[in-house]
């Protein structure tokens, strides 16, 4: 029986002792309480963007209802399964000036003592303070070493390196280059994102020096994801060649499924670009079309060949992670 043990003394308590070094990354529209609860019960950190919790005018904040639901479900799971407790969860805050809900959402997450905060599109001291004030930790996502240094200077506890091939707003850099440059000066929590869809890729991320893999697209094709059946099916039938990089839909470079662009009546091979000033998260996304009709995905989805439960997906990733880890360990001797 193969077991995975590592020195986790450099990691904050919230990131220690997990079944696998894996975080289910936050995805606009796709990640809701059902997926997060399934990921945490499967033993990996689950997450969702706060902006996904959207109530109708005059209704109580849906974010509070979701946080209560997640806490209650995970508490129940932990009481019933003391031998395999759920992993903690994370909430993603889009720290962009157009996110008019930010202050309210920070207050709610602080009050519910969210254990892990993931910040994107802007590093701000006051967001880090709101997290630390309730005992939370902040992981900030970056696409290069300069942004990584800025994020740590402003008080983030850890970094998410978003490398080439990632779904959503991917970076242009190779994970080999990016992780190496960050590890030259940073020995805190480091996550790697970009086309991690298998146990082999997860192991490779750890070999590079990342503490965790950060995977989104594979979870779109799970039963618990909040995605149309056609979107899930497109993940199953597509591969890396079907992913197009474009700034047209949100104002920042992102990766999308080519067939969804074609289905929306556009020429996926000849998309015009847009500039960053068109980014607007006031209503959650830059443009209503992006994410709803134009579906985001990273390049790793060739590994996904059916829609399945999150638990099954995580089991498969764990199996390969342990098998390949054991095989490699055998190939070395001291
Ligand atoms: C459909 C979709 C929506 C996303 N929405 C968000 C988001 O709202 N906030 C965020 O920080 N990252 C978002 N991302 C990026 C992911 O959190 C993560 O960086 C990426 O999915 C990792 O690459 P992978 O999809 O190849 O696993 C999104 C990704 C996808 C595919």
TrEMBL record:
Coiled-coil parts of chain: none
Entry protein name: Nitronate monooxygenase family protein
One Pfam family hit: NMO
Source organism (scientific name): Sedimentitalea todarodis
Entry's family note: Belongs to the nitronate monooxygenase family. NMO class I subfamily.
EC number(s) reported in the record: 1.13.12.-
A molecular function (GO) term: monooxygenase activity
Highest rank taxon of the organism: Bacteria
Matching InterPro entries: Aldolase_TIM, NMO
Keyword Flavoprotein: yes
């Amino acid at each position: 029986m193969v077991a995975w043990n590592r020195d986790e003394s450099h990691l904050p308590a919230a990131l220690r002792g997990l079944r696998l070094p894996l975080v289910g990354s936050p995805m606009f529209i796709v990640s809701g309480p059902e997926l997060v609860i399934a990921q945490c019960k499967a033993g990996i950190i689950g997450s969702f963007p706060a902006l996904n919790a959207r109530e109708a005018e005059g209704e109580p904040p849906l974010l509070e209802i979701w946080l209560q639901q997640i806490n209650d479900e995970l508490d129940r799971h932990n009481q019933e399964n003391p031998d395999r407790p759920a992993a903690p969860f994370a909430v993603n805050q889009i720290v962009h000036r157009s996110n008019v809900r930010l202050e309210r959402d920070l207050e709610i997450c602080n009050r519910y003592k969210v254990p892990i905060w993931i910040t994107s599109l802007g590093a701000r001291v006051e967001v880090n303070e709101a997290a630390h004030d309730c005992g939370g930790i902040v992981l900030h996502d970056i696409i290069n070493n300069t942004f990584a240094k800025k994020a740590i200077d402003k008080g983030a506890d850890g970094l998410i390196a978003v490398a080439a091939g990632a779904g959503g707003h991917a970076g242009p850099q190779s994970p080999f280059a990016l992780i190496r440059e960050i590890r030259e000066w940073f020995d805190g929590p480091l996550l790697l994102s970009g086309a991690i869809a298998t146990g082999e890729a997860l192991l490779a991320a750890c070999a590079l020096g990342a503490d965790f893999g950060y995977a989104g697209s594979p979870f779109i094709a799970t039963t618990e994801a909040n995605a149309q059946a056609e979107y899930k099916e497109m993940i199953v039938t597509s591969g890396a060649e079907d992913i197009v990089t474009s700034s047209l839909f949100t104002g920042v470079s992102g990766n999308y499924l080519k067939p969804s662009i074609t289905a929306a009546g556009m020429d996926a091979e000849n998309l015009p670009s847009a500039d960053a000033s068109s980014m607007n998260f006031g209503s959650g996304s830059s443009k209503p079309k992006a994410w709803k009709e134009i579906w985001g995905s990273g390049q790793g989805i060739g590994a996904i060949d059916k829609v399945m439960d999150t638990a099954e997906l995580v089991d498969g990733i764990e199996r390969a992670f342990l098998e390949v880890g054991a095989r490699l360990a055998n190939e070395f001797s001291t």
